[in-house]
Amino acid sequence: MDWLGDQTRLDRPSYRLENVLTFGFNAFGGARNQVTNALNGVWLGHPVHPPLASLSSGVLGATVALDAYQVTVGRRAKAIDGSLMAQHTLALGILANLGAAVTGATDWQHTHEQARRIGLVHGLLNLTATAMYALSWTERRRKHHLRASLISAVGYAISMSSGVLGGHLVFASGVGTDQSGPQLESAQWVPALAQDCLPDQGLHRVEVDNVGVVLFRSEDGIRAVGEFCPHLAAPMADGWVDRGKVVCPWHGSQFDPESGEVVRGPASAPLPCYQVRTRGGVIEVRATSERPVDDESVVTEACFAEACLTDDNSEAAL
C-alpha cells in the first residue's frame, strides 16, 4: 500500500475535502463539539466507524449470499423467497454504509500524509459501492432481480477492495487505535522529579520506570498524564493547559487531567493519568489508587492508635 500512500497528487483533493468538512461542522455553531464527539466515538471510548463498517460488511455479504441462493433455487415450490430477504438486508447495509461514511470522514480529516491519501481512496471506493447498492435496491423495486443481484455483487467486490485499504489504515498506520503507548504500572510511589525543577508553566516530560510521564502544575496542584495522545501519539509535552483541560498539540483533543476522560475529540480513548504526591520536595507518581502499606505508614498508624489509647486511659482515670 506504500505506493498509494506516496501519491502526493491526492493531497489537493484531500485538503479541499477537509475544508468542506470543517465548514460543515462549523455550521453547527455551539453544538459543533457535541456533534463531532458523537461521530468520533467519545461516548463509546473508541471510534464509531469500525463497528458500522463491520455491520455493513456483514449484511451486504448476506445480501450477496441470498441473491446467489435465489438464483440457484429459482422459483421452486416451498423455497424461501431469498430476493425479499436480500432487499431488506441491502437496505440495512446501505444505511450502515452511510453511517460509516459520515463517521469515517470525521476520523479521516485528522489523519496525516500516507494515511490521509489511502483513507481518501478508501472512502471514495466505499461511496462508489454505496451508489451501486442504491442502484441495486432501485432495480429490486422494479422486479429486475437478476440485474440487481449482479450490481450488488460488483458493489460488494468494491467494498472488499476498500476493506483491504481500511485494514491497512488500522494495522499499519494505527488509525482508530489507542496510541497512548506504554503506561506506568507500578502501584508503589516512584520518585519522578524534584518539585523545584517543575516549571510553573507548561508541560514537562520525565521518565519513570522507563515510561514517559508528563507533569504540569494546575490550580488543583501537580498533575501527571501519559506521554502520548491516544489519538495519533502526539507528544503531550508539546501541548498546553486550557481552562483546566490538557490539550493535544496536533489536533486539539482535550482531556480531563484528573480522570483522563475525553472532553473534546478527535481522540476517543482516554488519556492515561497517574496519582501524584509531593514528599520531601520530590514529586512522586504511581499508577493505581491502591495505597501500598510500607513501614512508615504502619509506624504512623501504630503511634496514632497508641496516642488515642493513652488519651482514653487518661480520661478514664479522671
UniProtKB/TrEMBL annotation:
What does the record give under GO molecular function?
2 iron, 2 sulfur cluster binding; metal ion binding; monooxygenase activity; oxidoreductase activity, acting on paired donors, with incorporation or reduction of molecular oxygen
UniProt keywords, alphabetically: 2Fe-2S, Iron, Iron-sulfur, Membrane, Metal-binding, Oxidoreductase, Transmembrane, Transmembrane helix
Rieske domain span: 189-285
User: What residue intervals traverse the membrane?
Assistant: 84-106, 118-138, 150-171
Q: Which InterPro entries match?
A: Cholesterol_7-desaturase, DUF2231_TM, Rieske_2Fe-2S, Rieske_2Fe-2S_sf
Cite the Pfam families for this sequence. Answer: DUF2231, Rieske
- Protein name as it appears in the record: (2Fe-2S)-binding protein
Organism annotation: Mycolicibacterium fortuitum
